[in-house]
Amino acid sequence: MSRILIVDDEASIRLLYSQELADEGYKVDTAANIAEALDLLTKNSYDIALLDIKLKNESGLDLLQKLVKEQSEMAIILSTAFSCYKDDFSAWLADSYVVKSSDMQELKDEIKRLLARKIAA
Amino acid sequence: MNFSCCWFNPDRSPLDCPHIAEGEEHLYSAPRKRFVEKCLNCNWFQHDIAEIPESDPLKRIVYILSEEYKEQKEHLQALSAFLTSKSREIKFLHELSLVLQTSMELDEVLSVAMTAITSGKGFGMNRAFLFLIDRDRNLLVGHLGVGPKDYEEAWRIWDEVDRSNFSLKQLSSEFYKSRIDSERAKFQEILEQLSVPLEDAGHIFNRALRERRTMQIDDGFDNPEIDQKLVRTLGVGRFIVMPLISRNRSIGILLADNFVTNKPISPRDLQSMQTFAFPLAFAIERASLYGRLQEEVDKQIQANRKLQEQQELIVRMEQMAVVGRITASIAHSIRNPLTAIGGFARSLLRSNNIEERKGYLEKLVTEAKNLDDVLEEVISYSQSLHPEMDLWDLNQLARSVAREMQPLLDEKGLSLTLSVKEEIPKTLFDYKQIAYCLRSVIHYLTGLIPRGGIIKLESSQKDNIFRLSASDSYTRLTAIEKSELLTPFLNAETLGEGGGLALCQIILERHGGTLAIEDLPEGGTRYSIILNKEVQV
Asked: What ipTM was predicted for this assembly?
């Protein structure tokens, strides 16, 4: 079973994503900030991390850079309410960029695509 | 003896005197004066003295007196001519100094100078040519020529000048206004032909500059040291070349001749012209410098205008960027709850067991409330631009907000102490907006202070300054953090959370006040809503 880490400061979004992705058959953990995320990453291994960019007073992009260096096997999806970060060079480090939407199909498709790529590799 | 003079001959009347001219009739009745001014030069008087017998000792004495008187009279006349010349020189220098004081325009200075050289009321030369040094081209360039081109024109101009009876100042003014361009055009060809490279050391122009002395040439056509092209172009062999030097800096040269009358240039004229060469050089240099300065000023003005346009462009771009940032912030603040609302709703729709996911309905309500808060904040921002001012009691506002915030404080495990200065007079402000500011400050503090912490709320007033302060004893902000707190929409997360201190700052500025964030000496930070009654809008 593929394992996904959701990092988002919005409790409602964490709940929604974890429920929806669990329904899709994934094992999901959630973190509200960078410290929680790093803690989970030391304990578990994930196939995909779903990162929000704005994390209260922290930046998901900082975590992204750290994960790219230290968790190269893990695919990373940036998920944000901002569409403008697509132009941010830091955001290009991620494997995918998804703008938050109540229709989560795009997110689910991206997760499937990245998992398939990982298996093929 | 046969006397001829009117003094001795009864048949001769003073009225017959051939030396008394029109306008000197007063001499008929003033014998002493008539004798001094006329008789000693009169042939009849001389004849009568010659008639005195040699034996008469008075004859010798009268002869000596007569000769001595004539000699002294010639001296006086020479002195008078000298004084007249000096007077003319002083008058000219005075007029030139006036121009120096009043004009920064090179052409105006040159108009006075060239008119003075060529008019009968000045030095009376027929023509004058000015050559100025062009250091960029290393050339002595013909700049201006003044005077008649031929005999006919000379007589016409002189006739006009005679009839006009203009003063030197009037003549130069008229020249400056209406003739300088035509004169320049008239001599353009000659001026171009006579321009001289500065390295042509043997040329009389360069020699005059190098030796710093006026050169008078009387035999130009036969003088091997004079460039024959110069003499042929001028058409005269008699001219003077005067160097113009100001503060040891060569400015140019002035050439003057009597092309029409061919009148010799007297040493006195030469001396007078040399006297005015220095102030003329100074005036030309000053006007040239001013002209260049004016050019630089014009360039500076142009540059400033461009800079201002660029700044305005930057401001417009910044305004557009702010609009973009506001839009993105609002979009972000709306999208999060909207994603949750839509997502939960879809999930509920798909679910076969709604009862199991009943908790989602609570989330829907919470997120809808978040959307309301975002909307409220956006509306507050737009309303902040137009405060509705009225007289309100600041203490009453503090108490009311404190009560309103109590549930949040309880939730966070915090307490609030209120210390108000009683009898603060009512003052003008928009109650809703200032209440929003105080709520925002308290809300912001609740996010920073650990459970069990205390927020101190105080009111005070001194003269026209009204202050509402909320402080804690835990936090300390850097200067950058303080600045970022007051920058609008820097952090989109604040939208809808009541933490928009930047919006408070805008509101307070609209009230003529400010939001001050200060470190407390004993630790902690104080956030003061300051209203200034004096500058209230």
From this structure: 0.82
User: With an 8 Å Cβ cutoff, are B493 and A54 in contact?
Assistant: yes
β-bridge mates for residue B517, sequence order: B527
Q: How far apart, in whole angstroms, are the C-alpha atoms of residue B394 and residue B468?
A: 8
The 10s digit of each residue's pLDDT in B288-318 is 888 889 899 999 999 999 999 888 888 777 7
Q: Are B474 and B537 in contact (CB under 8 A)?
A: no
Residue A22 near chain B (CB below 8 Å): no
B327 touching A, CB under 8 A? no
Q: pLDDT (tens digit, 9 = 90+) per residue, A33-92?
A: 999 999 999 999 999 999 998 887 788 888 998 998 888 889 999 988 876 666 566 667
Query: Strand A58-59 and strand B196-197: pairing?
Result: unpaired
Closest CB to B335: pick one of A23, A81, A104: A81
CB A65 within 8 A of CB A94: no
**What residue of B is the nearest CA neighbor of A99?**
B335
For B346, the closest of A13, A81, A102 (CB atoms) is: A102
Nearest CA in chain A to B342: A102
Q: What SS3 class is residue B377?
A: helix
Among A44, A25, A24, smallest CA distance to A36 is for A44
User: Residue A96 has which token pair?
Assistant: 């995918």
